[in-house]
Here is the input.
Amino acid sequence: MAHLKGQGKTFIFPVFIMGSFCITILAGLLGTLLPSLNYLPVIGHTQISLKPWLDFFSYPGIKTSIRVTLFSGLATSFGVVSLAFLFISFFYGNALWKFFEKILSPVLSIPHAAFAIGFGFLIAPSGWLVRMVSPGMTGFVYPPDWVFLNDPEGVSLAIGLVIKEFPFLIMVAMGALGQLEIEKTILAGKALGYQKEQVWLKILIPRLYPHLRLSIFAIIAYSLSVVDMAIILGPSSPPTLAVLILKWFNDPDVNFKLMAAAGSLFLFSMVGLSILFVFFMERAVCFFLRFRITNGKRRSFPARFKSIVFFMVAGIIFFTGAASVVLVIWSVTWRWQFPDVFPIVWTLKLWAKGLASSFDPVMTTVITGMASAFIGLVLTIGCLEHDADSKKNQTLNYNTYIHYFLYLPLLIPQITFMAGIQLSLVILGMDGYWITLVWSHLLFVLPYMFISLSATYRAYDTRFTDQAMLLKRSYPSVLFRVKLPMLLKPVLFSFAIGFCVSVAQYIPTMLVGAGRFSTITTQVVNLASGSDRRAIAVYALIQQSLAMIIYAVAVISPKILYYNKKGMQV
Amino acid sequence: MKRLFLILLGMIFLSGFSQAFAQDWDKIVKKAKGQTVYFNAWGGSQPINEYIRWAGEQVQKKYKVRVIHVKATDIGDVVSRILVEKAAKKNKNGSVDLMWINGENFKAMKENKLLYGPFSQELPNYRLVDTENKKTVLYDFTVPVDNMESPWGMAQLVFLYNTKNMATHPESMSDLLLFARNHPGRFTYPAIPAFHGTTFIKQALYELIKDPRVLDHPVVLPDFEKNTRPLWDFLDKLHPFLWRKGKTFPASGSQMLSLLNDNEIFISLSFNPNSASNAIENGELPDTIRTYIHTTGTIGNSHFVAIPFNSSAREGAMVFANFLLSPMAQARKADPKIWGDPTVLDTRKLKGRDKALFDAVPKGIATLTPKELGRVLPEPHVSWVDALEKEWLKRYSK
Amino acid sequence: MPLELENISILKQESSLFDPLTLVIGPGEVATVMGPSGCGKSTLLSAVSGSLDKVFTLKGSIRLDGQDMLSLPMEERNIGILFQDDLLFPHMDIGKNLAFAIPPQKSRVKKNQIINTALKTAGLEGFANRDPSSLSGGQKARISLLRSLLAKPRALLLDEPFSSLDQTLKKKIRSFVFSQIKKMNIPALLVTHDPKDCPEGGVVINLNKEDNLYA
Here is the structure.
């Protein structure tokens, strides 16, 4: 009865999303499962067997590859999560935290590949850091032969991943922390004689964790299956599993595809088991730590970690900043050799060339990103409106399970289902169309937009819409003239995130776009397969500036629009 | 009298043929007008990308054929896509019209019937190709080309070294081992199965194997171990003295170039005799880099462009392939300032303006003369690639 | 145009919040429902306005001008509410806030006229371009009422509209609200816990339950 006209129909949004995500991903998985069982009629394999799996497990170096993948993936996840919790506990609300909050958007907008290239050049034995002290302090006329970068164990890869994923988790945490009554809890804790850090670790972090759980799972999945960063920072013989699988998929010997399919399913199961492991760890920690939490002890054991955490976070900020700076320098370099601290010959030639040849890819990127983010926004708002409607009317909320569907594309390695999706699209004659490209981007755009918008959207004071409804009696005009304008800031921010996620897509763009859509990111990855750091830097910076511009627009335009509305500037 | 008659008859026939030929080609050019050619080619090099853009602009102007360079990171990727299209019975309007290809990728395309068919003989400029001295334009990694791909450029393995760091350069694999011992950590090669890595071990095998003639034939498994023993012994000795002590290898030939520029390694390798000159020209390498080859000669091959079976712009693709073979395009490509990719044409067949074009191509600062480049070793039979790669991985990728 | 509540009771999980309530409010009259917080006053208002949460069950009948309200959705009831908080839309200036409530007009000039007249009656002339957050509490309360009335409601519900105002302000606003209601000649239902909020001479009903602790 209290359904607003129109709002009651919003249930189609979550239903549509769940249905289409489910179908797309199932099609993708099926397209991988069958070849992994030796079924790929086009190359004459119709006899179901386990041969691809046996081939996979007997591939030379596969055990090392699996071990390195597991190590770098789990070390990254563990590092990011524990560092994030310690950082929040020690520094929430203080100067370092506020500084981090300020730089978060630009930091997040740095594309993974661009960061990896910059970071790799920083830490390489011939890299910028060694150049700064050479030969003066080190005596190195030639770079030392240290196994720093691309180390066989994947340590440099894990460090790079931690630096890149840490800000992401902090961003998610910032959204969730707004919903906890932090000041009050800390005051109450302090009144009981606990230190601030103790209150965090014993009370607030356990309450924060459920909000971060899915994002942590996504980090696990990402760090186990990352390709671009692993190529740049990871080992090469053997490389990590995801890189190996991609190589097999691209091998001219078509029989490798079967093995690649088996391998990608194995990678998927590694992700699944790791998530399951963390899930049980979580239960176990809950079980064993509940005594610790209530043991009443008030000593401040973690306090001595404070300076360590400070240096680690400062290190993350430093490396992220320096990686960008080094890209800027490379982009205006003509000649730069070890051990010179700066280039000996500078030039703007690479920029002139890069800007001239990047116009078309930039346009494709912008149009695709805008379209994906816009459709993503419509779907996200539709879902959240359904949410509001069903909450009010106590009707069935289709959003209850939507997370599980939305997160699927983030939890399944891209290579596991994208190749299968490509096959299905070709069968349907739908590959190489712009609209399918946008849809493939939406698989990744939508979850991030949903995560970023849902908390603020749900926290919206519905009395405003109630009042507006009584005044205007028209749902669309209440939604478009009152609710969305009031939520302009988070809506635009979510749009910017969607745009940036779309910009970053490489595998879907290549596979679903049939190579016909060249975006700035496909250009960066292509150039990264070459050797010219200067050209790579120019393109990576163009890619990064696209993301930064949209973030800036998202942050600044509400300020301009509402410059004289104090009530909107909270 | 009878002979004259026969000659005349022959001439009539021939002129008829060439007329028919010209007519066919005219038809193709006519049909190509307005087509869009999706040219899938590796996009990792700015100079090459720029050259392709230039060539595209030319055929747009001359033939109204629009060329779009689809930049691939790995052409195997494109082979995959065409295979998927075949799986889905997409026999028309495929996503690829022309692709840059050779070696294993060509073999895979040919075996899986992913190629359009013989076409290069129909290209007017194909007649200028040096099929006599450049055998690799007929046998791509020993696989018969059968006109299913049109030659585009020549390649030969060369080593790059920095004269600032070393006065002399090795002249054989055993020299190289000696160099590595004296300069630990200053040489490496890309991890197998990266193209340049595989080529390096093939070259080593050529130099070390007792009887190189077995390489012309398919691998005979029982003899493989015996034949390749010297190679593995050599690598076992070499690896401890490699960059990062052989614990890790660069991922690609391109990465080798960065390492050379960073002074991490002193010797690198390339498949383009002009690549050092080109890299010096555009600032990627210092001007103290020079190239050399081993006295035994080095492995050479050709690279091609091919039309997939389901191309939607076959005629346009042929027009573009023909343009790529034109003296104008080939001479520009050979210029180290532009790209420096050696021509597939027989420059002796050229006359007048066409010849002048090639005469005007400067010799790059680090480029060897044709004489210095000397003997080109043929690629081993294509079956060796797989066997060598497998064995290498088993031994060194643990 | 009387607003009639007949035998109204609201149930949550089978137990009713208060004793059945019957009340008739004539046009221009303000009836008051009193009761401590948590007794279901606001719930009663949402039942009348049509925004009642589905956890509640409503019994009885509500008629406005003889028309059954319960069968109508919220947007067709045409009943306005004034809350304790002003709920002025922060992203619009005062003029736009008022304009939002005005039913479609033929011309912009006409709309502006209506806004200016309304502002004049509240003694807030020239406030059309002001930012809501720059207004004092009393000014906001008056704008909020004006806005509710500009939507031309057939009845007005007042949900503790004065409780956030200080004593001196409260008096002024109260008389302004009641005079406006009289002028519009519509029935109004006020809920409050403060006896001082009630209009003189109006009906006052204490909302309670027989077994209520406060009864």
Notes: The CA atoms of residues 13 and 56 of chain C lie 8 Å apart. Residues 3-92+154-206 of chain C form a domain with the Rossmann fold fold (CATH 3.40.50.300). Residues 167-184 of chain C form the longest helix (18 residues).
